[in-house]
Amino acid sequence: MKNLNNALQKGNLTPKERVLLLVHDAVKKETTGKGVLSETEKHAISDGWQPANNEQVKEYNRYHKGWRTAGFAELDAQTAFLDTQIIYFEERQASNHLLLYPFFRDAKKWVERLDDVMPVDINRALEIAKKQREVKLKDGLDFDYAVYQLAFESLPKPLQEDLQTEYEEVAYDHQYLDEEEILYDLFKGKDKLTAEDKEKLADMIVKRAYNKFAKEWQLWHYFASIPRKEIARRWMDKRGITPTPLTDETDKQAFEFAREKIQEVRKIQISPEEAEKELFAENLRDTLLDYAKDHKTTVEAELKAVTLEWLDHGLLDEYTPMFKATDTKAYNGETKLPHNELFKKWIEAKAEARNTLDRLIKEGQLKREGDTITGESLYSFKGNYQFIKKQKEHIDEYQANLGIVYADDDPEHKGQHLDRELLITTVDKDGKRGFNFSQIAMARIKGYFDTMEFVKEIEVNGERVIEFTSDNFRDLMIRTTGGLKKHYAILITFRELFKRLSKTYNIDLTYKINKWIKVTEEFIDNHNKAIEEATKKPHTEIMDKKKIRLKDDLFIDKAKIQPDQERVKEYFKDLEDTLGEDF
């Protein structure tokens, strides 16, 4: 620009330079509000200039015509952008339903669950509550668990807090301390475990990782303080297995959710790489099963071999059993007593609790049948133990959906459990609820959901498929998805045109098209977000293997959209004919 101004002062501008000066002035005025030329200078450049020959006339006209064509192209690109805006705002009425679908689905499920509430009159409600209480009284309490509960209750508060620092749920979950006792019993009278001891311990560590009810390996559980996921990690290293890259959107969501939970529990930051490896080790079930099948072995054998190797090379030095540990560092902080002293106190408390319960049973204050202290004797016990008070409260408390009282004299509910949520209301002789406020409210709420259900979910070949209930909305989404793709292709082609013109006129001419493209990309991102939100699994279902997808493929991958050369080819041809090699 400085050279052009100098040339203007000397009066020896070329025709091309004259047009470029006018173009630069127009662009600067539009982008900053102030041009670079005065009215006098503009007159001198164009109207006040006399070409020396026809060649100068042709050159000036050539660049001037190119600039005029650029103006028409800009108007055309702007029209494409305005059409994109119209398409996007037209689509919002449908995509908003996708954005709201997760909330709608969740609310509808809760409303549908209200159908499971059973209408009963007051007499039937009392009868069901009485039956549940009778079943609970028969259940009683496992003797060993009663010993555990009494032992924990009898400990001074500081010792209870220390044990909870070791394991947060220790007040009611006995597994951690029971497994620490197993290690203690294995070591009794020995400095080191024998080969037979290690075999026995490896068996327990591995076999207890299999949940026979869920029929799956649960490698995120611990055995005492030994993390099974570390065994899985060592197996991965031994077999040369690396974490599978997370490409599926649902897997990524599950990974992020789990990483946040790990950080929340441990109160530390974990890098995505470390978390991915850890989570992969925790969820190796399919990999382990496939490996075992392919190599004609078993998951148990693979994990046991790794556990035995580790036992031979310092497993119990890295994760020292509680009875041997002299430090105070625990999973949830620092204990006041060293771990070995704390464990000694616990063993003493358990022995005393067992003696106390044996004495109470011998005296007839409690009654034991097999491994169970009977519910009736616990309920009639006059002592002041907290765990027995809680058992009494459990017996007296009506628990909806406990599922222990089944219909035997109720044809309508035959085979169903009766101790579910109850609505005490007016009921006719057939057990149907009478006309009341809740009935009216439920009917209206369900009617509202039926009216507003623009999207529904069905299952197809093991996938959860979301589809529009309205053909009009479906057609609208398909049409607008195509429109967004089409106009984005047009705009990125215009951007290529203005990039080439920028080199010709020695100034950035893409500033407008770039803004329009940026807004269009935001339109597409919002369009995609609606789809992602609709197909996102709730956190409560994050481990569900079933994919959720839209029936119609409406996701727009911007990276895959190719320029629409056909739409803009006339501008390219005209500018190439006009500007030649300068374009």
Report on the structure:
With 583 residues, this protein is mainly alpha-helical. The chain folds into three domains: 2-50, no CATH class; 73-121 and 425-583, Glutathione S-transferase Yfyf (Class Pi), Chain A, domain 2, CATH 1.20.1050; 141-369, no CATH class. Helix content is 62%, strand content 7%. It contains 22 helices and 14 strands. The protein has helices spanning 2-10, 15-32, 39-45, 54-113, 122-139, 143-154, 157-166, 175-187, 195-207, 228-239, 249-266, 272-282, 285-294, 299-312, 315-318, 339-362, 375-380, 386-396, 437-452, 471-505, 511-535, 565-579, and strands at residues 118-120, 141-142, 210-211, 216-217, 222-223, 226-227, 329-330, 333-334, 368-369, 372-373, 422-424, 455-460, 463-468, 548-550. A hairpin with a 2-residue loop joins strand 5 and strand 6. Helix 2 (15-32) packs parallel to helix 4 (54-113) and helix 4 (54-113) runs antiparallel to helix 19 (437-452). The mean pLDDT is 87.
Indicate the low-confidence ranges by residue numbers: none
Structural class: mainly alpha
**Helix content percent band:** 55-70%
> Number of helical runs?
22
Beta fraction = 5-15%
Q: Based on CA inertia axes, which overall geometry fits?
A: elongated
What is the terminal-to-terminal distance? 20 Å
The whole-angstrom Rg is 38 Å
Could you describe the largest sheet, including whether it forms a barrel?
3 strands, antiparallel
Give the spatial strand order of the biggest sheet. 2-10-9
pLDDT averaged over residues: 87
Oligomer: single chain
Q: Care to count the β-strands? A: 14
Task: Write down the domain tally.
Answer: 3
